[in-house]
Amino acid sequence: MQKRSSERINANLSTRLSYAYTFYSGTVLNLSEEGMFIWSKQSVPVDKVLVVLFRIENEPALIISRVKWVIKRENYSICIGVEILNTKKDYLQFVENLRQKEIRNSRILSTLSPLVPWPLGPCR
Known about the structure:
The chain contains 1 helix and 6 strands; from the N terminus they run E-E-E-E-E-E-H. By secondary structure, the protein is an alpha+beta fold. A 6-stranded antiparallel beta barrel has the order 1-2-3-6-5-4.
């Protein structure tokens, strides 16, 4: 498996997905300059073009992507990995802003962790 060229950032963004003239709801769980990890109940075939729509600072963002992989359960997609085909300047700035926010939050948590007697987060 190839290593990603850019690190993923946690996002949790509500989104609309468009495939074959139909819209579906989904959630972008994480993203980078080159791809996204999306959860949706709708299955999308691998190698097909998928339009991902969400808002960047109250402005609509339309991202054209290609489905790289899908994990399904009983005809429902659990996870969709996409490669972004049209990287726009506003999207790249949005990713960089999220990355800086994540860095600031991790610094805050690292300074608080000695003060908190229990593990933070659901996975620790």
